[in-house]
Structures are given as structure tokens and as C-alpha cells.
Amino acid sequence: MKRIVTLLLLSAAIGSISARADEGMWMIHAIDQALEKKMQERGLELSANEIYNSDVPGAGVSDAIVSLGFSCSASVISDQGLVITNHHCAYGDIHALSTPEKNYLEEGFWAFRADEEKHLKGKSAYFLKRVYDVTEEVKKVKKDLEKQGKPSGLRRLSHIMETLYKQSSGLDAVLSSMWNGKKYYMALYEVYNDVRLVAAPPVSSAAFGGDIDNWEWPQHKCDFTMLRIYTSPDGKPAEYSPENIPMVPAKKLNISLEGYQPGDFVMVMGYPGSTNRYSSSFEANFKEQLAHPITNKLRGDQMAIIKEWMDKDPVIRLKYSDYYFTLSNMQEYFKGEEECLRRFDVVEEKSAKEAEYQKWIDESPTRKKQWGTLLNDMKTKYLAVEEPEADINYYRECIIRGTHLYRVASKVTAFRSGIIALNGLKAKRPAELTDGPDPAEEKICSEYRFRGTGKALDKLSSALLAEYDVFDTRVEKDLFRYAVRQYVTNVDPVFIGNYQKELLEKYAYDYDALVDALWEESFISDKSKVEAFLAEEHTVNEYLSDPIYRFITEVKVMPFNAAITEAEGPVSLTSLDQEYTHLSYEYNLAKGITMYPDANSTMRLTYGKVCSLEPRDGIVTGWKTTPAGILQKYDPDDYDFTLDQKQLDLYSAEDWGRWGFGEDGKDLYVNFLTDIDITGGNSGSAVMNRKGELIGLAFDGNKESLASDLWYTPDYSKGVCVDIRFVLWTLDKYAGMTRIIEELGL
User: Over 90: is that where the pLDDT of 121 sits?
Assistant: First the structure.
């Protein structure tokens, strides 16, 4: 999906569950009678135990909900381990399988036989088995560590606690901190690593409308992908093997073809990634006024450079499609968040809440001692770090991620270090170095994060050269030219290194001439030059003398950290932000206000209704879209709105078969709108009706919801969903995947 929001029920502070609209992503194990009752009043026909029941495997809907590596959500829909999620959740996987000769992004992927299903390397499916409140255990461990003078941060606590629970349960264990350490929960998962691609429509269907429709409503996307989970022959989780068999799940979701109407109850379960609703007005202001404007300007211009090349050359389009997809999604999100923070007066809303906090603090000597100056300290600190933070943003967006060359430079550094280590090994054990694998060489390669086969130096070379397979140096040259100009003209000169200054003066700040010279003189500006360089004998320091390498790596990074440290003083901004969250927590607890922790990739439930949207005064949109809208948007000259001939013919014929409804089966919905509270990580989440039956998949939010990471906006935060009947029609009529239709019992 994209990004939006999160929540949980704190049983110790139940209070009234009258949160605005149906705001909330509730932790799945914490559904109490009050929340159960409210959902049932809205139309839910299930009990809390039918949603989550850790004592009876397969009894709860949650047993059919899947996390795909904690980046997306999915659900099991057949007795043979068939899983459905969003297309964009598998976009990178499909891209990795594609070649110029067989481009599955453009053509779609359809496994008409079981042996055609393709293994997705690195894809894992997580099934939640149980959640424990381990707050007191964690506090005890933390106290013991502090007594011993040992580190007691979340990473150390997680290692200790997760190891303990993994050993005792035999399951994968993940510790999560809520409200910056006020509560801790341990989740146990069963993990399956053999996940295979079954079906994926072409991007002309799955991503119809492209960037233009991203975060918009109405939309017309068939954003789905089907995967299958495989197990060992005895039904247990296993690594990929041709001998593995389809998983027999404890629970599957039934598919409903009944449809829905405005006002109908809907429920979503998934793994929202992160939100920051307990942030201060100062942080919101920082994002609105400083961080987002920089990021949005730079990424927007970078996208324009890449898109110009992609439109020129289909080979470049394939090579950059996954990178551009990710870049576009995030840039649209941050741009929308900046606009919504301003439009919905989030800074002012949070400031008003902080005035209430301060009044409450002043009413108690104890609270005054703990938090009396907190808000003023935060205001002062955020103002102090604005300038160095702006410089850091330019460094990050231009030098680190502005081109792929930073990754190449990092590999060159590791290559040089690896050579030094290998030369040292050779001097000690020349007789033991052979053409075959050597344990000592393997250790060095592992240390420097290189993979491959054969001799260690071959591995190092292959790893460096492999970087060039994912980009085009012509595109990177344009991106590098833009990055150099933006960095030099926007950061404090103290952060420009001596080497950069020499070059800038030599070429009189002519950025075109400077970059042309670097490109000509550098061995890392082209793969063929890298290959030639590696074929020759060079001293280790010659690797680090490359002009592009030097320009990237000799930026004065240390002053960045020093500037932040100086601006922050003895108390870090991070610690103040943490204390602010604790203040919010204690205030809500004292006032009996129902709370939920920010999203953190734990399973959550959110609910709402099918609804329309009034995005602006005088503008009212509908609650669903139809294939007619696809034809209205169709433009053969615009890549984002093009269709293949078969799609065009099928949409024009309006033959919806058994998936149509209404008079003579002439109706078919494509997407529908709900007021569910979701965020990134919810992509692919099952949208269910009052009976817990699947009616669609959540895949996006609307632009008006994009302040929701920091502040929920009632009446504006919506979730965009694809109708399961449109998915089935695509499988049946467009793809001819009858074996899947039969597997689903339809």
C-alpha cells in the first residue's frame, strides 16, 4: 500500500472508546469487551475470540493473516497455501525475475501449472502465534544490566529477550517497545521461507494511473499478486526445495461475492509499519518547514531526470523501474505530508494539546520537577539544530542516495580493505591459498560482505562489478551532475572538503565541465573501465585515488555530527522526544483517555465503513469506481494510462461473467473507498466484511490522509481498496487462470 496510521488498546486505560471517527489500529491480542462491543454495534458479527485466539490454532481470523517480511501484509485464501497481497508488495521480486526478453512487469506473470510457480529468493511469510506482555520482565533485565554497567538499550534488551523466548518456544521471537519503553510486548511467529510467485497482472492493470493517480481518489488499479507458501513434505517450515509441498494452513479466509454498500462495516488486519503520532509540535514544524521541502525538491528533480531516460529507452525503464517505483512512492508521500501538515494546521493542533500538558504539569510539584521545562527545552533545541539538520539532509539526499555511485564507492572501500586482508593472509599462509574455496578467505569475504564462488579476489571483483548491473552510467552521470550542483550550492562551506574545493576552483564552478572531467578520469564511471582496472596490478591506495571516489568520500562528514552535538548540548533531542512520549502517555492515562501505541510492524486491527470523500469544499467523490473509468482515462500515448489490446477489448465488451452483479450482471467495481485507519505495511491487508470474509485488499491512501503519520485527520483519512471480484475477473477472463478459480472453490 503506501503509508498512513496506527493504534492499540491499553487495557489499563480503557476509558471511553469514543476516538474520533473510527481512528485506531488496535493490537490484536488486546481486544477487550468495550472494543468488541463497539465493533459489533457497527455491524461486526464475530466475537473477539473469533478474531484472535492463541489457545486454539485456526480458531481466529488472525491465523490467516500473514506478514511478508514486515514490509507488507497478506492473507491465506486456500487450503493449499495460496496467499494474496498487493502487486506493489512483490514489485521488486517480479522485477528481479524479469529480463528484456521476458518482462513480467509489462507482460504479467501467470503460473498455469504448479511447476511454473517461481521461488522468490529472500521472501518470508510470518504467522503470528501468540503475544505476551513482557514489560516487567524487560524492566528487570534492564535493571540488572544497568547494575552491571552494561549497555541496556533496546537492541541489547531485544537480543536477550528474543533469545530466551525463541529457545523456550521454538518460534521466531520479536520484542516491540511501545510508547518509547512504557510497555513491551513479545510476539512469536512461525516463519516460512519457501514462497513462490503464482500470479501477477501487468503494471498496465496493477498500477494503472501510475504516479499521477498515486495517493489519489478515484483510482482504477487491480493491485494484487498471488503467492504460495510451501513446506517440507511433513508440513513444517523449510527452506526452498523442489521436494516441498503446498502449505496446509490452520486458517484461510473465505471470499465473499456479495459486495458492499456505503455504510457497510469493514475490518482490516495487517502489519502497519510505523507512525509518529506521539510526536511534538516542534517535530511536526521541523518536517513541514525544513526536512520535507528539501527532500521533496531534490527527489522530484531526480525523478524527472530518471523518467526522461526511462521514456527514451525501454531497457533503461526495466533497469530503473523498481528504483523509480520506490522513489516515486516516497516522494509523493512526503510531498503530500508536507501539504497536509500545513492544510490541517497540525502544528497548531499539537501546540494546543501541549498547552493542556503544561497546565497539567503545573498542577503537580512532582510533575513540575520531572517535566516543568520539557516543552521549552524542546522548542529551544529544535531551533538550534535547524541549520545543521538542513546540511545533513542535503548530504544524505545528494551524496549518499542521490546516485548509485555511493554504493560503488562503498564497494571500492571494502575491496581495498579486502585486498589488504587477503595479502596479509597470503603472507602468512602462501601454501594454503588455492584456486578452490578456502575457509580463511571465506571469512574475509564474509567480513567485507561479499558473496560469490571461487577465489576470494574473484568474489571481491564480482561484487564490485555487480553494482553496475542495476543502473546505467548515462543516467548516473546526469544524477551526479545534479547532486554536485545542489550539494555545493546549499550546504555550509565548512562541509565541503578540500578536494571538492580544489576541483570547484579549477573549473570555476562550471559543474558540467567538472563532472565531465571526473567522468573521463575515473575508473568507476563505467563498468568496462572497472573491468580493465581490475585486470591490472595496482597498489591498494590507487583504488582510493579515483577522482569520483574521492569527490564522494572526502566530503567532511565529521563536522555534521559535531554541529549537531554542539547544537544539542548535554541533552540529546532524541532523549527529549522520548520524554515527550512518556509525558503524553502519563497524561492520557491520568485523564482516562484510551491510548494506542504507534505502529511498529506488529499485527493490528482497524475497522470502519465503506464511504465517500469530500476532499475540498464543494467537491464530493463517489465511494467506488468501475471499468468505465479505466476506459475514460485510457491514453495510448501515456505510459501510465495505456492498456494492451486484450484489456481494451475486454473492458469495452463489458462481459463480467460470473463476477458481475446488478441488473443482467452489468456491474463490476474496480476500487472502493473506506475510512479505515492504515499506514505503510498495511499494503495487501485483507479487507473483510462483518462476517470476516474477504471483499478486497487495501493498497493505498488518499492525499488528504498524508498527515496521518503525525496526526489523524477525521473525515479525510481514507483507505483505497481493490474489489476482490475485479481481481477474480482479471484472473478468470483476462489471464485464464482457471486452476486458481477452481482451487478457491469458486
Answer: yes
Q: Contact 500/554 with Cβ under 8 angstroms?
A: yes
498-544 tens-digit pLDDT = 999 999 999 999 999 999 999 999 999 999 999 998 888 777 678 88
Quote the distance between the C-alpha of residue 494 and its chain's center.
Answer: 34
Strand, helix or coil for residue 314: helix
Q: For 102, what's the count of Cα atoms within 13 Å in the CB-facing half-sphere?
A: 6
DSSP states of 171-223 as a string? Answer: SEEEEEEETTTTEEEEEEEEEE-EEEEEEE--HHHHTTTHHHHTT-SS-----
Q: How far apart are CA 452 and CA 441, in angstroms?
A: 12
Pairing mode, if any, of strands 82-85 and 225-231? antiparallel
> 31's torsion region: left (phi>0), alpha (psi -120 to 50) or beta?
beta
439 pLDDT more than 60: no
- Check whether 12 has a pLDDT greater than 50: no
Q: Is the peptide bond before 439 cis (omega within 30 degrees of 0)?
A: no
Mean per-residue pLDDT, 134-161: 96
Quick check: 25 and 178 in contact, CB under 8 A?
no
DSSP 255: B
Question: In the prediction, which pLDDT does 15 show?
Answer: 34
Query: Which CATH fold would you assign to the domain 11-124+193-276+603-610+668-743?
Result: Thrombin, subunit H (2.40.10)
Q: What is the mean pLDDT of residues 649-669?
A: 93
Q: How confident is the model at residue 239 (pLDDT cuts 50, 70, 90)?
A: very high
Enumerate the β-bridge partners of residue 230: 194, 246
- From residue 335, give the alpha-carbon distance in Å to each of 196, 299, 342: 35, 10, 11
Closest CA to 700 of 658, 671, 727: 671
Residue-wise burial string across 518-546, b where 16 or more C-beta atoms lie within 10 A, e elsewhere: bbeebbbbbbeebeebbeeeeeeeebeeb
Calculate the CA dihedral of residues 676, 678, 684, 688 and round it to 10 degrees. -30
**120-134, 432-446, 540-554: lowest mean pLDDT where?**
432-446
Enter the C-alpha cell of residue 281.
509540535
Annotated domain spans of the chain: 11-124+193-276+603-610+668-743, 281-397+563-591, 405-470+497-554
Entry field: residues in the chain: 746
pLDDT at 425 exceeding the cut of 70: no
What gap in Å lies between CA 254 and CA 463, rounded to an integer? 46
Cβ density class 449-471: b for 16+ within 10 Å, e for less: ebeeeebbbebbbebbeebbeeb
| Average predicted confidence (pLDDT) for the chain | 90
* pLDDT tens digit sequence for 370-419: 999 999 999 999 999 999 999 999 999 999 999 999 999 988 887 776 66
Q: Does residue 631 have a pLDDT over 70?
A: yes
Active site residues: 88, 223, 683
Q: Which residue carries 504507534 as its cell?
A: 598
Residue 405 · residue 548 · CB < 8 Å:
yes
Selection from 71, 163, 48, 205 nearest residue 126 by Cα: 71
609 membership: H or E segment, kind and range: strand 604-609
Q: What is the largest CA-CA distance in the chain?
A: 83
Other C-beta atoms within 10 Å of 660: how many?
16
The answer to whether 305 and 478 are in contact (CB under 8 A) is: yes
Smallest CA-to-CA distance from 141 within 129, 126, 156 is with 156
Q: How far apart are CA 347 and CA 285, in angstroms?
A: 6
CA distance 454 to 474: 32
Give the other-Cβ count within 10 Å of 32's Cβ: 14
Q: Please check whether residue 226 is in contact with residue 83, taking contact to mean a CB–CB distance below 8 angstroms.
A: yes
CA nearest neighbour of 131 among 76, 68, 175, 73: 175
What is the rounded average pLDDT of the residues 540-557? 86
**664: exposed, middle or buried (Cβ count in 10 Å: 0-12, 13-18, 19+):** exposed
